[in-house]
Amino acid sequence: MSTATDVPLALLADDARREEADALARRAADLPARGWVEHRMAMPWSLRVRGRHAHDEDTAQVVARAYALVAEIDEQLSPFRPDSALERYRRGELALADAPRSLRQVHRRCLLAREETDGAFDAWGWRDGFDPTGLTKGWAVAQVLDVLAEVDGDVAVGAGGDVAVLSRTGLPWRVGVEDPEDRSRLLGHVDLRDGAVATSGTAARGEHVRVPGGGAATGLRQATVVASSVVRADVWATTALVLGAVRARGRLHALPGTSGLLVEPGGTVHRWATP
Amino acid sequence: MRRIVLSTLATVSGLVALFSYPTSLDRPLTSDATAGTASGTSTAEPTSGASATADATPSPTAGTTTAPADDTSGTTTAPAEGTTTDGGLADGTYTASTTMRYGAVSVTVTVSGGAVTGVSGTQSSNDPKSEQIAAGAMPTLDQEAVAAAGDAGIAMVSHATYTSQAYAQSLQAALDQAAQA
C-alpha cells in the first residue's frame, strides 16, 4: 500500500466539499447505466453509457460503431501487422500525404508532443525509426469518445488505463486511480465531467517505458495525469516516467490545466493541480 | 534568520511564477506571501520575465500559516526562532497566493528539518472549466478497497497498461462485469 505523505494538510479533504462530491457521485451511480467490454489492439476496451438511453437499441448500435472504429484504427496503425499503413510508411512504401487520416493525425500529434515535452516524449527516439505506439492508444480513445458522444447521455471510454469521459447530465464520472503496490486498491479518485485521466507506470508490464536513447525509465513508479484531452494526459503521464521523480514534479507543476498523482519508487505520493 | 526567511519567500515567489506561467505574458503578477517568522519585503524575479513581489507580514494569520509538522495540536502558531536548523530553512508551512485570469492560485511549501519537503498548489476560481480542474479534478487521496469502490460510485479505473491476463484480475474487470449485468 502506498502512503500519502507530502501533501500539506490544508489541501486535504475539505469535509463539506467532499460530502457534496460524494453525494453527486452517488446520484450519478444511480442513473441507468450499461457497460461493454471488448478486446481490441491487444487490450480490453471498456465503454459506458449512462442516462435514460443507456439500454436503447440505438445506443448499442453507436457502441458497435465505436468498436468498429477501434478495429479500423488498429488495422491502420498496428506495428504488428506488416500490411498496416504504419508499417508501409515505415518501409517507405507509403507517403504520409497518401496515408489514412489516422496515421497523418498521429504523426502530427507525435511531432507536437516531442516539441511540447522538449524531446522527452519522442516517437523517433526508438531503435528503428518512427513508432507512434505510445500515442496511438490515447488518440484512439479520443476518437472512440467522439463516436460515443452521439448518444444522448453520459459516456466514458477506458482502454489500457486511459480514461476519457463526457457528461451531459452534469453529474460527474468518478474515475479511480489504481494503487501500483496493491492492484486491488485505489490510490485515489477524481470526478470529471469533460476530461481524461491517463496513468503510466512500471507496475503492470514491468519497465516498458524507455528513456529516448537510453535504458528503462525507473525514476518514478507511476504517474497519473488529469487533463482536458486524453492524448495530452497520456503524453504527460509517459513523459513523467521518462523525466523521473524530481524533474517530473517541476515540469508537471508548470503545466496549465493539469492535475494528478505521482508515485515515487519509495511509495511517496505527490499530488498537484495547476489551473 | 531573516536571510533564511527571505530565501524561502523567494522560493515561494518562484513557485507562484511557475503556476502563473499561462498568464505571465499578459500582465504583471502580484503575490502576497505570509510566513510565520518573516518581516520585511522580498522581491523575486521569476524566469518568465514577469515581476512578482512577495510581501511578508510578521503576524501569523490563521489559514495561511500553520504549525510545524512536529506540533500535532493543529494550531496556527508560528514556528519559534529556535526551530531553525543551521544553514537550513525555518520549519513550517508557507503559503503564497496570486491572482490570475481564472482566479486565485495558492502555493504551499512545507519545510521540515530545514528542507523543503512538500510543495502543492490549489486554486479557487469563477471560471467553470478551471474550477473543475482545480476542485473536482484534483485527485482525492484515498485508500479505497475493492469492496468499497462500487459504493463510492467509482465507474472506471485509470492504471498502468497491463496484459489481458492482468486485466482479468483487476478492479476494472470487476466494474466491467457489474456494468454489463
From TrEMBL, chain A:
Keywords: FAD, Flavoprotein, Lipoprotein, Magnesium, Metal-binding, Transferase
Superkingdom, natural source: Bacteria
Catalysis: reaction(s): L-threonyl-[protein] + FAD = FMN-L-threonyl-[protein] + AMP + H(+)
Annotated SUPFAM superfamilies: ApbE-like
GO molecular function: metal ion binding; transferase activity
EC number, as in UniProt: 2.7.1.180
Cofactors named for this entry: Mg(2+)
Alphabetized InterPro entries for the sequence: ApbE (IPR024932), ApbE-like_sf (IPR003374)
One Pfam family this sequence matches: ApbE
Enzyme class label: transferase
Protein name per Swiss-Prot or TrEMBL: FAD:protein FMN transferase
Name of encoding gene: apbE
TrEMBL record, chain B:
Organism, scientific name: Cellulomonas oligotrophica
Gene3D superfamilies: 3.90.1010.20
Spans through the membrane: none
GO CC, any one term: membrane
Name under which the protein is recorded: Uncharacterized protein with FMN-binding domain
Domain FMN-binding: 101-178
GO molecular function annotation: FMN binding
Biased composition (Low complexity): 30-91
Region (Disordered), start-end ranges: 26-91
